Amino acid sequence: MDWLYYILVPIIASIIGGAFSFGGIFITIKHENKIRKEDLKMREEEKINQTIDKNKKIISFRPELTLTDNTNNIKVTDEICLLPFTEPELSDEKTITFGYGNDIFNEEYWDKYEIILQNTGKRTIDTYFLQVPYKTYANIYHKFEIKNWKKSYRRNYYSDELLLSSNLRPDEKIKVIVYYPKNCPMLDDVTLDMYMGDEDGNYWLQEKANAINKINSHTISPDAFRMHLNSEYNYWFVYDELYYDDRIAKYFRTDISNMLEDRKQNCWEKEEKQEQFIRDINNGNKLLNTKLPLN
Fold first, then answer.
1. Number of other residues whose CB lies within 10 A of the CB of residue 261
2. What is the sign, positive or negative, of the torsion defined by CA atoms of 162, 165, 170, 175?
3. pLDDT for residue 176 is more than 90
4. Radius of gyration of the chain (CA)
5. Are 236 and 263 contacting, i.e. CB atoms less than 8 angstroms apart?
6. Which are the contacts of 75, defined by CB distance < 8 A and separation ≥ 6?
7. pTM for this structure?
8. How much is the pLDDT for 137?
9. How many CB atoms lie within 10 A of CB 64?
10. β-pairing, 95-98 with 216-219?
C-alpha cells in the first residue's frame, strides 16, 4: 500500500495547496474590489463636495437687493400701480378682464410710497420682475399702462407680475414708486416678491421686497422662473377663484373642469420640479448654470 500513499499524498497536497491558493486569490480579488468600491465612493463624495462648494460660491456671489434710504445715483425709476382684485369677467378661456372705473385716471385717486433698492450683491441683475404672491388679491401694472388704459389692447387684463425696466449692476440703485387707491389703504402692506436672472444665467427669488417687510433671498430653479413668466400659471389664479362657482357657466358654454384640473396638475408638476431642483443643488447632484470662476 506504500505505492498508494506515495500517489495519494501528492494529489491531496496539490488539492489542498490549490484550494489555499484559490482562497488567497479570491480574498485578494475581494479585497481589491472593496478598495476599488471605497475609492469610487470617495471620488463620488469628493465630486459631490466640489459641486456643493461651487454652489456655495455661486450663492455667495449672487445679486442681492437691499433697501436703502440713500437717494444718490439712482439709475432708474419705475412707477407701478396696485389695484384690488375684483370680480373678473371671463369672455373666453384666455381673456380675463376687470371692471375698474374711470376714477383710476385721476391723480387724486392714488396714494403712494417709495422704495429704493440697491444691488448689494456681486453680480449684475440682467432681468427682474416684481410678483404679487399667489392669492394676494391684487393686480400690478405700470403707471403708463394706467395712463393709456383706454387705448391699451390689453385693457383690464389680469396681472400679477411686472417686469422692471433696466438691468442693475452691483451697487446700482432703482427707485420703485408704488401707487395704490386711497380707499384701499391695506394695499400699502402688500408683499412684493422679486425674481431675478443674473449675468451668469442663474435665477433667484428675493421675497418681500418692499419697505415694510423683511427681505429674504434664496435660489429658485430655471423651471420655476419660467413658470412665473408663463401666463398659464397666472390664469389659474382667476379660475381657481371661480372653480366651484355656478357663474362659471355664464362665461363658458362647455365644461371646463377638465381643463382646470389639467392646469392645476401642471402647476403641481412644476412645483415638484422646483423642489427636486433645490434638493439636487443642496445634495451636490447638480451645479447651478454659471460661468466659473466668479471674480
1. 11
2. negative
3. yes
4. 31
5. yes
6. 166, 168, 172, 173, 174
7. 0.77
8. 82
9. 19
10. unpaired
pLDDT for 134:
76
**Distance separating alpha carbons of residues 255 and 105, to the nearest angstrom:** 38
Q: Are 124 and 63 in contact (CB under 8 A)?
A: yes
CA-wise closest residue to 283 among 8, 44, 5: 44
- All three cell numbers of 200, joined, read 451668469
Tell me the per-residue pLDDT of 150-168, one tens digit each, with 9 for 90 and over: 665 455 677 888 888 889 9
